[in-house]
């Protein structure tokens, strides 16, 4: 009886060990299979975190490359048709993310033949004189009117309460 009992015990232990090894092998197989999905999820979560950080950045800190549109994704109605030698410059995105460059780019999209004077002087007065010499009288009057409205807006925006009282007292 003891020989038969030893054989049964040995067989039972062998079967249990075989089941444990098979279980480990199946576990390793499933973990290996899931590792591809885990790496995809990791990449996706990193991409989403980057996008969330970019959305939190102020507009001035965002890179200019985010503003560029590919020519192929642009609708036909928005594409600029070549008028002359300046058409090459219009199709490209603005040179930088500065407001002046963005506005110049938009104006050139509207009219590619539009010219902008080079203002190369150090003093603003000299630049305004050069600008006046390149503009028609009607355009200059319109520009002066705009400058006056802009100055009023800036004064109202930046004035402190004490300054407002002094300005109104001087006028009175």
TrEMBL record:
<dbReference type="InterPro" id="IPR043530">
    <property type="entry name" value="CD74_antigen"/>
</dbReference>
<keyword id="KW-1133">Transmembrane helix</keyword>
<dbReference type="GO" id="GO:0005576">
    <property type="term" value="C:extracellular region"/>
</dbReference>
<dbReference type="GO" id="GO:0042289">
    <property type="term" value="F:MHC class II protein binding"/>
</dbReference>
<dbReference type="InterPro" id="IPR036613">
    <property type="entry name" value="MHCII_invariant_trimer_sf"/>
</dbReference>
<keyword id="KW-0325">Glycoprotein</keyword>
<dbReference type="GO" id="GO:0002286">
    <property type="term" value="P:T cell activation involved in immune response"/>
</dbReference>
<dbReference type="Pfam" id="PF08831">
    <property type="entry name" value="MHCassoc_trimer"/>
</dbReference>
<keyword id="KW-0812">Transmembrane</keyword>
<dbReference type="GO" id="GO:0016020">
    <property type="term" value="C:membrane"/>
</dbReference>
<dbReference type="Pfam" id="PF09307">
    <property type="entry name" value="MHC2-interact"/>
</dbReference>
<dbReference type="GO" id="GO:0035718">
    <property type="term" value="F:macrophage migration inhibitory factor binding"/>
</dbReference>
<dbReference type="GO" id="GO:0070206">
    <property type="term" value="P:protein trimerization"/>
</dbReference>
<dbReference type="GO" id="GO:0019882">
    <property type="term" value="P:antigen processing and presentation"/>
</dbReference>
<dbReference type="GO" id="GO:1902166">
    <property type="term" value="P:negative regulation of intrinsic apoptotic signaling pathway in response to DNA damage by p53 class mediator"/>
</dbReference>
<feature type="domain" description="MHC class II-associated invariant chain trimerisation">
    <location>
        <begin position="97"/>
        <end position="165"/>
    </location>
</feature>
<dbReference type="GO" id="GO:0070374">
    <property type="term" value="P:positive regulation of ERK1 and ERK2 cascade"/>
</dbReference>
<dbReference type="InterPro" id="IPR011988">
    <property type="entry name" value="MHC_II-assoc_invariant_trimer"/>
</dbReference>
<dbReference type="GO" id="GO:0060907">
    <property type="term" value="P:positive regulation of macrophage cytokine production"/>
</dbReference>
<dbReference type="GO" id="GO:0009986">
    <property type="term" value="C:cell surface"/>
</dbReference>
<keyword id="KW-0472">Membrane</keyword>
<keyword id="KW-0964">Secreted</keyword>
<dbReference type="InterPro" id="IPR052001">
    <property type="entry name" value="MHC-II_Gamma/Thyroglobulin"/>
</dbReference>
<dbReference type="GO" id="GO:0006886">
    <property type="term" value="P:intracellular protein transport"/>
</dbReference>
<dbReference type="GO" id="GO:0001961">
    <property type="term" value="P:positive regulation of cytokine-mediated signaling pathway"/>
</dbReference>
<dbReference type="InterPro" id="IPR015386">
    <property type="entry name" value="MHC_II-assoc_invar/CLIP_MHC-bd"/>
</dbReference>
<dbReference type="GO" id="GO:0002830">
    <property type="term" value="P:positive regulation of type 2 immune response"/>
</dbReference>
<dbReference type="InterPro" id="IPR022339">
    <property type="entry name" value="MHC_II-assoc_invar_chain"/>
</dbReference>
<dbReference type="GO" id="GO:0043518">
    <property type="term" value="P:negative regulation of DNA damage response, signal transduction by p53 class mediator"/>
</dbReference>
<feature type="domain" description="MHC class II-associated invariant chain/CLIP MHC II-interacting">
    <location>
        <begin position="11"/>
        <end position="83"/>
    </location>
</feature>
<dbReference type="GO" id="GO:0005737">
    <property type="term" value="C:cytoplasm"/>
</dbReference>
<feature type="transmembrane region" description="Helical">
    <location>
        <begin position="12"/>
        <end position="32"/>
    </location>
</feature>
<protein>
    <submittedName>
        <fullName>HG2A protein</fullName>
    </submittedName>
</protein>
<dbReference type="GO" id="GO:0004896">
    <property type="term" value="F:cytokine receptor activity"/>
</dbReference>
